[in-house]
Amino acid sequence: MGYRYIGSKSKIIDVLLKKIGDIVPEGAHVADLMTGTATVSMELRKLGYKVTANDLMTYSYHHAVSGLKFSKLPTFQRARDFVEQYYKPKENESSPTHYQMMINALNNSKPIKGYFWKEFSLSGKPSNTDKPRNYYSSENAAKIDGIRANIEKLTKNKALTHNEKSLILHDLIMGTNDVANIAGTYGHHMANLVGRAKDTLNLYPSNLLLKNDVKNHTVLQGYAEEVSSKISCDICYIDPPYMKRQYAANYHILETLARGDEPEAIGVSGLRPWRDQYSNFCTKTKIRDSFRLIFNNMKTNNFLISYSEDGLLSIEDFVELLSPFGDVYIDEFVHKRFKSNSSHLKNHLTEYLIHLNR
Ligand SMILES: C[S@@+](CC[C@H](N)C(=O)[O-])C[C@H]1O[C@@H](n2cnc3c(N)ncnc32)[C@H](O)[C@@H]1O
User: For 148-165, what is each residue's pLDDT tens digit?
Assistant: First the structure.
């Protein structure tokens, strides 16, 4: 089970954590302003920091809630009728947790030829194009529809707590991501079903980080430019998009899973209307103003920014942008690059960690 996310910091996490530890003491308040998969936020929580995680995307919100907001295993107390209906433990089965039972029940959801089957599988007939989209096997797409219908029913019946709902949507995203017929992002699907896309979709319980510290952590969803005015912290980590590729367009299906809606799926890729999640950080002429807004709005003395030589701004542009706000320190290191399978880009690139102290 994994998650290939453009710009994910899982590979450089040790360097990043060390840098944060050099700047602020243990227990300090760190804002992870563009949290993505929430990998960094979760690692910070492990080390005892107080974390505020934010991102524009709804799927990131669910990842962050799952990573930051559990102190004990969820009981799914209000969903017991649903679980009993869909999951009967076998006689010799060692007693599973309520969380495991909930996941088993969801895995037993009745397949439905619904929105995902119609718009995102080869057997489907998309509403506004003749060519079916091959993002999932037909069986998996119908299973996704069945699971989504059950989550919808549970929501209507108020059978899930806020955090429980985020957690099962997170697990749905992780599970479906394993069997998605894509080369890296959801910008395109493969022509034929390949590799793990042929496997049967199965959801698994997450390996939750259970600590009695959830009150220390906050999860937000919004534009960094706006959210920044609500945050006061010891250090703000910013990991912006580096390139023109908009996350909302490249991960549109994950966003649809996270929101639980059925938007119009447009064109060959089946994109949801995504302009409401357009990022200025993917447009060279807008990045500077967006950064300035964050620096002006947020109450903190330290910003740490990840950037790369591939980025829309050069490192010289960055220094020029940051210098009026304080002292700028740059760490440089070589990092293995995220590549879609078809990419001809070189394997390594220089990454920067830019510290702004004011
Ligand atoms: C490089 S990724 C972050 C990866 C993350 N550090 C991780 O390890 O998974 C950039 C993130 O910025 C988010 N983003 C882009 N523009 C944003 C904005 N204006 N406000 C908040 N988040 C934004 C994207 O949705 C994406 O998740």
Answer: 999 999 999 999 999 999
